[in-house]
Design goal:
about 475 residues, alpha+beta, 21 helices, about 5% strand, elongated
């Protein structure tokens, strides 16, 4: 079997392989290989050596790979083959893994994971094995959880440095394979990724180069970003980022400082977190779990707060209370209530509307009293008395409305006639909301209220398109 493999290698090196496998020769060579591979022996893994030869043939068959792979059912049974690490070199392991990827055996996914962990430096073979396992599990979360159960076998490696370098090679290839994955994400991928990361880093890290650890966490963050790319809805769920908490707990302070400084993907994760926080804030929502993840993504709480404030700077439509909660990183205590409000916000809105109507009628009533009453005194003395009473009543109503507004801390916004950027959350468009409007002119002023230093709009200014 080794002789056949060496012969094919020499022929390929001389670029004469196409002549050798021309026509029916390919089938004849496959027959010879299978006749050797089906001879069982305890001294060598003939099945995998045979698979390596067939894999080598498939690589040069140029469109006839199917003729080679169709023979695999004669070679592999319901029983798992031996260790792929027993093959002589990286090329043999790679070609054997190409054949394994074409199988459809119940043991294949678990076998590929175990072999990918056991392989030392054959990265091409490791890539094929992990890619095969991922496709067989069918979901990213399922693949990560299953891999986390295999990683503990790395404990058998005595040297911490050697063990973590192997783990780093595994994480690198896993990240590359997952970056190409277009299938299902699965259930709770963030939790699965956290378990995956924990299984890699659960051992001692004495004398391990910090660059290895930085690369390991970066591979993990790359997988996290792929989850978000595949299903953005997961970006809004706090548990998606649970690996950040695990990483901060696992690594010492000095290591995390290096991760902050060197990481290629941490800033992208931070951006995903900040954008998710902004989406929730625009829905008038807060999320303690997501805020915790934001804190873990930064060196300190103060740094996280500064980042959130900067990210929220152009979001003028946010509710003041919600904005404060996020910008203070959730450290907002409920204010002590000095006195119970006996008037609700809806009542304040009615008072505000009344104030607007009274103020808008002021000019008309003044003209009525100044110009119409003298005329009626001459033409209709009785009617003039009624108009005088109406004007007097308006003055009392106006005074009462202003007094109520002052008591409830209601004020005009002073925007009438101004041209502003349109914000549907703060403006009432004449005729209803219109898409594509950028500038609006204020036709009727709005009313705002002071809530212990925080200002809220109770009656929106009425506006029209000014473009």
């Amino acid at each position: 079997m080794r002789g056949v493999n060496e012969l094919l290698t020499r022929v390929m090196a001389k670029q004469k392989i196409q002549a050798l496998i021309k026509g029916q020769n390919l089938d004849h060579i496959c027959d010879v290989v299978l006749s050797k591979g089906l001879v069982r022996s305890d001294s060598q893994n003939r099945t995998l050596i045979c698979a390596a030869v067939l894999g080598r043939l498939s690589a040069v068959a140029r469109g006839r790979e199917g003729a080679v792979f169709s023979r695999l059912s004669d070679l592999f049974s319901e029983t798992q083959p031996g260790s792929i690490e027993a093959l002589e070199d990286g090329d043999e392991k790679y070609y054997a893994s190409l054949c394994l990827a074409e199988l459809n055996q119940p043991w294949l996914a678990e076998y590929c994971l175990n072999q990918a962990v056991d392989i030392d430096t054959a990265e091409k073979a490791r890539r094929v094995l992990l890619s095969t396992a991922l496709s067989k599990f069918g979901s990213l979360a399922g693949f990560l959880l299953s891999t986390s159960k295999v990683f503990p076998t790395l404990k058998a490696i005595d040297s911490d440095d050697t063990r973590y370098k192997r783990a780093r090679r595994l994480s690198s290839v896993s990240s590359d394979v997952i970056r190409q994955w277009e299938g299902d994400v699965g259930y709770s991928p963030g939790v699965a990724l956290s378990e995956w990361f924990s299984s890699v880093t659960m051992t001692s890290r004495k004398d391990v180069d910090v660059s290895v650890l930085v690369d390991l966490i970066d591979d993990t963050l790359s997988i996290l970003l792929r989850v978000i790319e595949l299903r953005f809805s997961f970006a809004l769920i706090a548990e998606t980022y649970s690996v950040l908490d695990r990483a901060r707990t696992t690594f010492k302070h000095d290591v995390w400082v290096e991760i902050m400084r060197r990481s290629q993907f941490l800033e992208k994760v931070r951006t995903a977190l900040k954008e998710s926080a902004l989406v929730l804030a625009r829905q008038n929502s807060t999320d303690k779990g997501l805020m915790d993840s934001l804190r873990f993504a930064y060196y300190s709480k103060a740094q996280a707060r500064a980042a959130i404030i900067a990210h929220f700077s152009s979001a003028h439509e946010l509710d003041p209370d919600v904005r404060e909660w996020w910008e203070r990183a959730g450290d907002v205590s409920s204010p002590k209530r000095v006195a119970e409000h006996k008037v609700s916000n809806s009542d304040d809105q009615q008072i505000g509307s009344l104030l607007i109507n009274v103020e808008e009628s002021k000019t008309v009533m003044e003209k009525l009293e100044r110009a119409v009453v003298p005329m009626l005194e001459v033409m209709e003395p009785a009617l003039s008395e009624n108009v005088k009473k109406a004007a007097l009543s308006y003055g009392e109503i106006s005074e009462t409305a202003r007094h109520l507004a002052k008591m409830r801390k209601l004020k005009h916004m002073g925007l009438k006639g101004a041209v502003l950027d349109y914000n549907p959350l703060q403006h009432e468009m004449l005729g209803g909301h219109q898409y594509g409007v950028r500038k609006v002119k204020v036709l009727r002023d709005g009313i705002q209220k002071d809530f212990g230093g925080k200002t809220k709009i109770l009656v929106k200014p009425r506006v029209k398109n000014a473009d």
